[in-house]
Here is the input.
Amino acid sequence: MIETKTCEGCGAQYERPPNARNWNWGQRRFCSRGCGARVAAMDPAHRKKCGDGLRARLASDPEAKARHTAAAKANIAKGRPLSDRKKSGATRSRNTLGWLPDAETRKLYIRLREQYGAAKAKEMVKESMAVAARREVRRNQQEMDRRHRRELEQRY
Ligand SMILES: [Zn+2]
Here is the structure.
């Protein structure tokens, strides 16, 4: 039986990856890295720790501070508001997940991607989609054959 856990971030159920060591699986609290990062980013203690670390580094290293300031100014000059970043996130996920025909396949792909990586997951999902399509074609053909036979029987 596959072990599952409930994500502390989004509440989703996630499965134990087949290659997960006991230690890692025991430590794990989130369905994905993204979920863990989101939860950490909302935690005031975590934010303070990161802020303190950054401030300490910038105070001790004038070169790093100059680089940091330049990068921050460049970002402000680009003037990309949060709504813009939200939009680009949506575009990105449309571009990476847009080929998936429905929510169910999408969910399957995301789960497989977590376990096997994107390339392998895409291959697996495409294969299962092709199998389903072939099955659909065969079903249609059988249905047409049946109808044809019924017509012939009725004729004679
Ligand atoms: Zn989650």
